Amino acid sequence: MITKLNHVSIFVLDQDSAFDFYVNKLGFKVHTDAAMGPGMRWLTVTPPEQPDLEISLMAISEGMMFKKEAAEAMRDLVAKGTFGFGVFECNDLLATYEELKAKGVTFKKAPTKEFYGFEALFMDDSGNWFSLGEKAK
Amino acid sequence: MDKIAVDTEKGFRHVIVYDISLMDNAAHLPRIYLYRRIVQAKLFIDGHYHQNIDLDNIAGEAYFSKFHFIRIFKTTYGKTPHQYLIAVRIANAKLLLQKGKSVNQVCYSVGFDSISSFSALFKRLSGLAPSVYQQQQLERQVEMLNAPQKFIPNCFAEQNGWLQKPQFSINEV
Domain A7-134 - what CATH class? Predict the structure, then answer.
């Protein structure tokens, strides 16, 4: 019986830049940052109130996981904003939106009332996008 | 984007540049202004936690009465400005402890002026004394350096060719 999701991967163009985005802008905590050999780094972060969900910031580079053409195609798609990776939750959407905007985060959509809830869309530094919603009160 | 002049509670006029999508509900506008001040106060704490911050001053800068300010801040962030400041100081203390700085050094660099109140607050918020937390973190770092595979789910390590030993396979049974 499956009980939990504990790791999920987000493919990023540059791990240093992703570190800055997820840690310094979004305020996530670094869970593991381990050097795995030349040019290889296992970097995971967790949302502030979800310490057991590790988001692995995976570099898209040629290697065992991606062949050269696949890495190039993947980088291209990510940079074009093809992939939406999930929905983050906050306590207060307007306040979080103002804060992230002040920190330079790009929003595809400002907080908007939709039939399914109050939602904004933002992009990470690579081009991956996320929905941001408000916790039901 | 559009420019909107907003009259605040105290009659100041400010020009706010805002996304047009929020203009469909005019009742939002004062709320947006309010949010900006609260968010700025939060960001001010984030950037100046290591200094001797006068929270009364922040309320003043936000053009609110102190109590109004504290109430809205707490509704937004779940903590009073004072509680939030302590939480930011402790979070930053953790980062410095992870880097091997002494408890003494950390205490003063994050803005506390007494070791005993720093240690007590650290323990209350994190469940561990600063020195114990530091020791645990430093040991974890050594392990991460010596045996990084331990920190990675096997499937990822395998896909990346990071495994050093052949793994158990069902075919071998």
Answer: alpha beta
